[in-house]
What does this fold into?
Amino acid sequence: MSVIISIKDIEFKAGSKVFIRCDFNTPMDEFGNITDDRRIRSAIPTIKYVLDQGCSVILASHLGRPKNGFEDKFSLLPVAKRLSRLLDREIIFASDVIGNDAKTKAANLKHGEVMMLENLRFEKGETKDDENLASELAKFSDYYVNDAFGVCHRAHASVHAITKLYDNEHKAAGFLLIKEIEFAQNLIKRPARPFVAVTGGSKVSGKLQALTNLLPRVDKLIIGGGMAFTFLKAMGENIGNSLLEEELLEEAANILKKGRELGVKIYLPVDVVAAQTFSADSAIKYVSTQEIPNGWMGLDIGPASVRLFREVLSDAQTIWWNGPMGVFEMDKFSKGSMKMSHAIAESFATTVVGGGDTADVVERAGDADEITFISTGGGASLELIEGKELPGVKVLLKEEE
Ligand code: AMP
It folds into this structure.
């Protein structure tokens, strides 16, 4: 059986240099201020552990999607400053990735010091899994640790190609990465029952694979958000101008049928907040899903659906939530998502939230502390739930003796 190599399995030699691939892809406002530093805080246990082994640390991450080398707005400098405050120690910042500044600073790094490279994606080779870039990065350190769960579903140079340059005694997964994988695996393999999956968001297409993989594993499935309308339409409802993926109607009908065969209870909204236009100042109406007026669109679940879903969740022992119940970015259509967040946070179940938007909802609702686990990686967490093997994780597996 193959298992992931844990940072705890590594015997770090004091005085060594350790490269830690983090996911510091943090949201920033138009002034460059970090608006949510969850990802930076999540990396701290691994950084501290490595420092406590008597090693020095070289941190690397991507930020956003720079196209053509250095761009000020994608610089990791604000992240270095925030981390410096959180760790209460100096972070030596390199103004490039594998250039002279990074090389000199890495070479002069002393025991117990922490340095950060500039945004990995300023190097074009990063997203191309380029072996030259990987080998330049590997020259900086004796050990490699990956704690960047959010990018493990991509074969990029700093999470994939680079691992070939270290043997199993010198590479490992960090604490955050291990925690993410364990939560997803426990959810799929041994959930406490009843297990309820709550899905939402805009599109069926983005979650189809996850729904298909989850269906035989869950006891109940709640479908809200924009994706619910393709299911409602497949059941013959008139959904007005609500979001519809016409080409997936048959697939949606199949999921409903499969659910019936498996004995999985599937719940859809019974009422919606309908709007005339997709805008914050549109006229709105609370209507049952059977009475959406022609030309109107459902932009949030209504109060009766909230009550129904709350009831469905009341005996849950495990809840997995991915996707908002409505267009939560506009206040008028955020109530359904907020109330679901409260209901999930208040339940006695093990609660796991995945996806950037859903984490944002939970944060805005003030419920983040009451959720058992909030995944830091949207795409990666969805792929784990879909049952896929992540390229960045596969390369850190070893055969258990
Ligand atoms: P996703 O990335 O698929 O999880 O979708 C998240 C997005 O779905 C959010 O930006 C929401 O605004 C959007 N969304 C949720 N409910 C609806 C709806 N009823 N109609 C249109 N968009 C929606």
